[in-house]
Design brief:
2 domains, single chain, five-stranded mixed sheet, mainly beta
């Protein structure tokens, strides 16, 4: 009889769960020591509060309004770039966003005349990080890194002269560390010469 009583008492107990459902304030703040966030989450600065928050894969910090560039995504690698008409038009402009965290945008440029110069100019939205412009070769290796433009604190410019005939890529990416790694931008590509 005692065994039946204990069994019925055990069956009637609610299931134990070691998971603490009180996750703290939203957005979820980063921990004080490593690992600061759960697996696959990144600790980043929240632009609206200035606090370090955990952001999940594909997420973005609260308060940031990404430009919708879904029509050109995914374009994160040289095997899936956004095509440009630069070989015939000589100039190309587009608005875009480095969003979510870890995103980068890659644009294909075809050089049809030897010894031309390619200029990649990225104008980042004020208030966010300055995004980086780069020029990549056909295998994705960096051949020119963007530099700040004097007197224009939101711009990065990459230039490569005397390009051979072939395919190259313009890349827009967020900063490798530090502040908020997402921002909106205006891209300007130009071919000149020879």
């Amino acid at each position: 009889m005692r065994a039946i009583f204990l069994l019925s008492a055990f069956v009637s107990l609610p299931a134990c769960d070691a998971y603490d459902r009180d996750l703290g304030p939203v957005p979820y703040l980063c921990g004080a020591s490593e690992p600061r966030c759960p697996d696959e989450y990144t600790c980043t600065a929240d632009p609206s509060s200035g606090k370090d928050i955990c952001v999940g894969p594909g997420g973005n910090p609260g308060g940031f309004d990404c430009t919708d560039d879904s029509a050109i995504e995914p374009n994160n690698a040289v095997d899936s770039p956004t095509a440009t008409p630069l070989d015939t038009m000589k100039t190309f402009e587009r608005d875009g966003a480095i969003c979510p965290i870890g995103d980068k945008d890659i644009y294909k440029v075809t050089i049809t005349v030897a010894n031309q110069m390619l200029e990649v100019l990225v104008d980042s939205e004020p208030g966010g990080p300055v995004l980086t412009a780069s020029i990549l070769n056909r295998t994705g290796g960096t051949i020119a890194v963007g530099m700040p433009v004097t007197g224009m604190p939101t711009m990065s410019r990459a230039v490569f002269a005397d390009l051979p005939i072939g395919e190259f890529f313009a890349q827009v990416a967020g900063p490798s560390g530090g502040s908020l790694p997402v921002n909106n931008y205006q891209l300007s590509l130009k071919i000149t010469g020879p």
